Amino acid sequence: xxxxxxxxxxxxxxxxxxxxxxxxxxxxxxxxxxxxxxxxxxxxxxxxxxxxxxxxxxxxxxxxxxxxxxxxxxxxxxxxxxxxxxxxxxxxxxxxxxxxxxxxxxxxxxxxxxxxxxxxxxxxxxxxxxxxxxxxxxxxxxxxxxxxxxxxxxxxxxxxxxxxxxxxxxxxxxxxxxxxxxxxxxxxxxxxxxxxxxxxxxxxxxxxxxxxxxxxxxxxxxxxxxxxxxxxxxxxxxxxxxxxxxxxxxxxxxxxxxxxxxxxxxxxxxxxxxxxxxxxxxxxxxxxxxxxxxxxxxxxxxxxxxxxxxxxxxxxxxxxxxxxxxxxxxxxxxxxxxxxxxxxxxxxxxxxxxxxxxxxxxxxxxxxxxxxxxxxxxxxxxxxxxxxxxxxxxxxxxxxxxxxxxxxxxxxxxxxxxxxxxxxxxxxxxxxxxxxxxxx
Length: 440
Hints:
Blueprint (H helix, E strand, L loop, with lengths): L5 H12 L2 H18 L4 E6 L6 H14 L3 E6 L11 H18 L13 H14 L5 H14 L12 H14 L6 E4 L2 E4 L4 H10 L31 H4 L2 E5 L4 H17 L3 E5 L12 H18 L12 H8 L1 H6 L3 H14 L7 H10 L4 H5 L7 H14 L7 E4 L2 E4 L4 H17 L3
Helix pairs in contact: 3-6, 5-6, 10-14, 14-15
């Protein structure tokens, strides 16, 4: 009898790590520690002035203070680890645009200044944030600082010396608690990024009995709760319905798995074409994904999947041979008109069912339930032509100013992340409304 190898055991390890009992135990430990310290109501907020997402986050947190009996303790950080941000120039442009979209969605002041803050402005803002961290009005003062930094067109910032000791302590705390970037809130051992994850934070506050009223309704659900609520199948040849929704997708990316499921539902609701554009995973493109980032993505995907009722956690990582075999069969699936069924079958298998796609037994299951012929598929496994179109897809994604998956493009509008499918939904809706007013 063959003894289990690491690849056999890893899906079960992932399943155990993402199981409800494991999370319950971990949360109980954090609650007990917080109770001993008198910190059941304390959430730590890590703000980096370089990060425009901090502005909408602070505005959202001031609203949460009105609804929940919580204390937010500010921690200013400064460094951006290069290996966490593989394309820093693209990240800067994208972050400001995306944070502006997010702020406008919630009617917040956006970080939409026409020029990027100078180093003098950033240093001055950092010094001001450090000076107020321990004051009762830290949150509201920090909001004023970031509003001036990211929204004002003029600045009176003067060169300031930074409290390097406090900065170093804050950054060490950020890493010790398990994260690597700003615009993050840490509460009872869980991390919440920007406004996008505050619905999870709100639910955590409610579980702790910290809400000031009995309604317990979450404020920050606009990025996902109403997706496709205004959708309806478009008439034949309607201009909005002939433009495809392009999905830049990696079979290894758990966010791509969630994004593909949701994009397929979005395309179906509007009856628009869905075009899949697979790219190589970042690691297979020579970009690093440090452990802290990998673990955050794994646990964040699990709670997002739970929220969206998408199974996830029984993960059989397809890195390497699994990815290559997946892409080698993509053209065959497309020739049969079943590429979407095939990729959804593959993604579900490696993210939620523990199916090892690098084995023939596992791949056969994936292929056949997508309605494809395994005997025909086997003959195409050595095809390397996919490498050319995968690179073409990567270049097309970069032309959108994006470098990570899942990314989406609908006509001239593009966005990154399964959290931004509402941008596509709104774009389709506006095109439909414009066509209707023009008598199309």
